[in-house]
Amino acid sequence: MNYSLSDVEARVLGALVEKEITTPEYYPLSLNALVNACNQKSNRDPVMTLDEDAVRSAIRTLNDIGFTRFASSADSRVGKYEHRLNETFNFHRHEIAILCVLLLRGPQTPGELRTRTERMYAFEDLESVHNALNLLAKREPPLVKVLPRQPGTKESRYVHLLSDVAETNAAPGESVSESLAPRPDRIGAMEAEIRQLREDVSALQEQFAQFCKQFE
Known about the structure:
By secondary structure, the chain is mainly alpha-helical. The chain is 50% helix and 7% strand. The longest helix is centred in the C-terminal third of the chain and has 30 residues.
C-alpha cells in the first residue's frame, strides 16, 4: 500500500507520536497543542509555520486512512486527537521511535537516529539501531529504505516510506523538491563568486609581475 503522506501530514503524525511518548500527561493533543507541536523549532527539520486550517486538513486525511482519530473525553470540552500507528502496525517501542524521528526530521543516519531517539527509546548501540531499521524495512509493505550514500559521507541515510520518496542526494535540511528544482539564486551567486576569484587572481598576477620587476 502506498500512503503518500504530504509533508504536513507526516509532520502532524510525527508530532502526535512524539508527544504520546515524551509528554503522556498532555496527550491526546488539542488542535492548538498539535499546531504548536508541529511548529516547534527544536527536533524538527524543516521548521514549519502551520496554521490551524492546515493541521485540521491533515488530520482529516490521516483519519480517513486510519492513522489518527478524534479522541473524545467526557471530562473535556476541547476536541483532542491521537494517532493509531500502534494499532495499525503493532509496532515495538524501538520501531516507532525511529519512525517518529524520520517523520519529524527527514532522512537520518543510524548514528543520528540513535542520538535523536533518546527521549523515546534508549538504543544500546548502533547495531540495535540497524536491527530496528531492518525490521521496518522488512515489513510488508516496507516502512523505511536506505538512500544512496552522499559523496564524502561515511554513513547512509534512511527515510520513511509513508510519503513518496524520490531518489536524490538532497542535503540534510533541504527538501527533495529543493534539491531537484532549478535555483537561479544559487547559480547567480556562484557566477559572481567565480568572477570575483578571477579578478583576485588577475590582481595577484599583476602584483607579482611588479614585484619581479624590482629585481630586473
